[in-house]
Automatic annotation (TrEMBL):
Belongs to the binding-protein-dependent transport system permease family. Residues 97-285 form the ABC transmembrane type-1 domain. One of its GO terms (cellular component) is plasma membrane. This is Multiple sugar transport system permease protein.
Length: 300
């Protein structure tokens, strides 16, 4: 018994000529480490490429007047606010900013209202031709805006909408992307909520205001940010409709400054001013953006 136990505990020696190989997972560790390091490096490179134009814009905006650009603008010790004061005094930036705010904010409110109502109808209502109507409306995404620009202008011009706020805003309200996003979010909401509201005797408008709207606040905020950025940075349609200087938006106004031989430093100062509202909107609604991503896959 002692002999057998001793032999059982004795380690088995390796066969002659055999080499001790490292564990199978040891060779994979460098590859995994490289893969984990590669994604952050790629993200940093993308961030640098994205942020660099904005950084150059700000540097040139604060550079001394006289058309100074890179590399002279890199000397931050000579930064000045003279370009901002000059562009605010010489150009009608305030009027253009008001036009852009009216165009963007009113469009956001109306598009959110109409798209949420349409999305609720397409997601939870049953009526003849619903699918055909939805996909026909969605097919308009494949038509470029440039192809409909002339018919839009002729129609708005015949109705007297040139150089007016309603002519600037109304043609942009039928947003198929917004309707599609709303429909895809509302279709995930549990049907039991709507059935319970109907049993309690709630009307369609009450269901929309007390059930649908509170549940879609994250996607409303997300869509609101996108719509605001689309309209704030829009150039072609405001250029066509706003033919007078009083109806110019910021994007159109800054483009006209370049044609008036205004110094590049002042133009970059005006462009920097246009970025501030976008940053404020994104900062205020950032929490709702993350909530929308977190709840996008929830179902009953």
């Amino acid at each position: 018994m002692a002999t057998s136990s001793t032999s059982a505990e004795r380690p088995v020696s390796a066969a002659p000529g055999s080499s001790s190989a490292p564990p199978a997972g040891t060779a994979r560790h460098p590859r995994r480490a490289a893969a984990r390091l590669g994604l952050p490096v790629l993200l940093v490179l993308v961030a640098v490429v994205t942020v660099t134009p904005f950084a150059v814009m700000v540097l040139v905006a604060f550079a001394p007047a006289g058309g100074q650009t890179l590399p002279g603008a890199l000397d931050v010790t000579r930064a000045t606010l003279a370009n901002f004061t000059d562009v605010l005094e010489n150009a009608d930036i305030t009027r253009w900013a008001v036009n852009s705010l009216i165009y963007s904010l009113v469009s956001v409110l109306l598009i959110l209202l109409f798209s949420s109502m349409a999305g609720y109808a397409f997601a939870k209502k049953r009526f003849p031709g619903r699918e055909i109507l939805f996909w026909s409306f969605l097919a308009t995404l494949m038509v470029p805006f440039q192809a409909t620009l002339i018919p839009y202008y002729i129609l708005v011009s015949e109705l007297g909408g040139v150089d007016t706020y309603w002519g600037l805003i109304v043609p942009t309200l039928a947003n198929s992307q917004a309707v599609f996003l709303m429909r895809q979010f509302i279709v995930q909401l549990p049907d039991e909520l709507f059935e319970a509201a109907k049993i309690d005797g709630a009307s369609e408008w009450r269901i929309y205001t007390t059930v649908v709207l509170p549940l879609i606040r994250p996607v409303l905020a997300t869509l609101g940010v996108f719509v605001f950025l689309w309209h704030w940075n829009d150039f072609l349609w405001p250029l066509v409709i706003g033919q007078s200087e009083e109806m110019r938006t910021l994007t159109v106004g800054l483009a006209t400054l370049e044609g008036e031989n205004v110094a590049i430093n002042q133009i970059m100062a005006g462009a920097t001013i246009t970025v501030i509202p976008c940053l404020l909107v994104f900062g205020l609604l950032q929490r709702y953006l993350t909530d929308s991503i977190a709840t996008s896959g929830l179902k009953s």
